[in-house]
Each structure stands twice: as structure tokens, then as C-alpha cells.
Amino acid sequence: MSTTVGSRIERRPFASLGHADHGWLNARHHFSFADYHDPARMHWGAIRVWNDDEIGPRTGFPPHPHADMEIITYVRKGAITHQDSLGNKGRTEAGDVQVMSAGTGIRHAEYNLEDETTTLFQIWVIPRSRGGQPSWGAKPFPRGDRSGKLVVLASGYDDDKEALRIRADARLLGGTVKAGESVTYDGGEGRHIYLVPATGRIEIDGQIFEARDGAAIIGGSPITIKAIEDTEIVLVDSE
């Protein structure tokens, strides 16, 4: 089930998302992924995957390959530990972000080595071109530094100098907004915006979005996001 707000916003309730419970991994899929297939939810602009993952303590994804995809991991609670075939190793904590450009091919493993469940968004974005040397990077983004505003966390645009680099015509933004306050975002004409409140309830154009609902938005005029409860917003803007 999806709810259309006006002509440019589609609400995707959390309960309508694809679902796979593997025991150690409880995953919700905003777009078609693995055994979940919905022809109406194949991609949104350059966004191909948005998975809402809960990874049990001391478990994780064993080494597996990727190619020709930009993979962004936004950790919401706990931490994820990364290891890849390039020799990169790193631990990304709640509120922080890691990016991987799969390029011509890379193998990686992602483990929750913590004693608590780790929750994260894993977002795949189609690169602007195929191939290229694979790479990985991570950066802390303290939630307090983005209180009351949206901050660019990962980007394929040179103007976003403080953001992690991806090789796609897209940017990832995050922000925290207190109940009763609002933030505005202006996506350009023809842009594809996908927004998820990781926590809390929000209102966009008079429509209520619960925590972990998806909002597929066509750019062209500003959107105002009002926090009904304290909220943490994650947004991708792509061609």
C-alpha cells in the first residue's frame, strides 16, 4: 500500500515495505531487493536500494562481492565493523556514515561486533558511470552538529566539500529536528527525493509520516518538514 499526497509525494508506510526476517537479520526493504519484488518500487531516480536493517549482536554479513554500485551505510544505533578486500577496516558508530564505491569489484564483510542490536539504513545509489577503482571511507557526523538543520553527509558533488565522496549524481543528508520545529529542503526541478524519519513523527504538506515510513518526492519546489515529535531525518536527493 502507498499513499499519494497531492501529485508529488508518495507515502510508503513502514508496514507496506518488503520484509525478510533471517533471525540474526530483520530487514525491511523500501525497494525491490532479494526475494521482495514490486515492479512499482524498483528505484527512485538513482536510488536503487534502501534497506532498514536490524542486525543482532555478534552477527553480520560474511564476505560477499559488489560491483558498479555506490553503497552508503547510515548507522542509527549500535555500530557496524567493516572489512574489505582492499585491506580497509573500520568501525562506524550511531549517527555516523560509511560509503563504498564498488567500482570494478570489491568484497566486503559487515559485522555487528557489539553486545546490542545494531540498526542502520543501507542505501545503494546507481553510479554516474560503470567501473573505476573501488574505494571505502567513513566519517563521524555528531548528531548535535546537525540539530535543527539538514547537513550533507555524502555527496557526488564537488560543492559539498565536508561530505564523504560518492560517484553518483546524488547526495545524502541528515538532521535532527525537535518537536514543533521545521526544516525546509529545496530539491531542484526533476530531482528525486527519498526521505525517511528514522525516529519520530513528521508532517509534510499536511500528511503525517510515522517513524520509518518512506516519502518519495518529486523535486521542483521546497518541502517543509515539520517535526510532530523529536525526529531524526535521513534524505537522499538524486537525479
Explain this structure to me?
Its cofactor is Fe cation. This is Pirin. Keywords: Iron, Metal-binding. With 239 residues, the protein is mainly β. The chain has a single domain (8-238), classed as Jelly Rolls. It has no helices and 23 strands. The chain has strands at residues 3-5, 9-12, 18-21, 25-29, 47-55, 59-66, 70-77, 79-84, 89-93, 97-101, 106-112, 118-125, 135-139, 151-155, 164-165, 170-177, 182-185, 192-199, 202-204, 207-209, 214-218, 223-227, 231-238. The strands form four sheets. Strands 1-2-21-18-23-16-14-15 form an eight-stranded mixed sheet, with no helix packed on it. It has a seven-stranded antiparallel sheet with strand order 3-4-5-12-7-10-13, with no helix packed on it. The two termini are 25 Å apart. The relative contact order is 0.19. The mean pLDDT is 96.
CATH superfamily: Jelly Rolls
What is the tally of beta strands? 23
Give me the secondary-structure category.
mainly beta
Choose one word for the global shape: globular
Q: How many H/I helices?
A: 0
Name the average pLDDT: 96
Strand order of the largest sheet: 1-2-21-18-23-16-14-15
Domain Pirin N-terminal: 18-125
Pfam family, one: Pirin
Binding site for Fe cation: 64, 66, 108, 110
Protein name: Pirin
How would you concisely characterize the structure shown here?
With 239 residues, this protein is mainly beta. The chain has strands spanning 3-5, 9-12, 18-21, 25-29, 47-55, 59-66, 70-77, 79-84, 89-93, 97-101, 106-112, 118-125, 135-139, 151-155, 164-165, 170-177, 182-185, 192-199, 202-204, 207-209, 214-218, 223-227, 231-238.
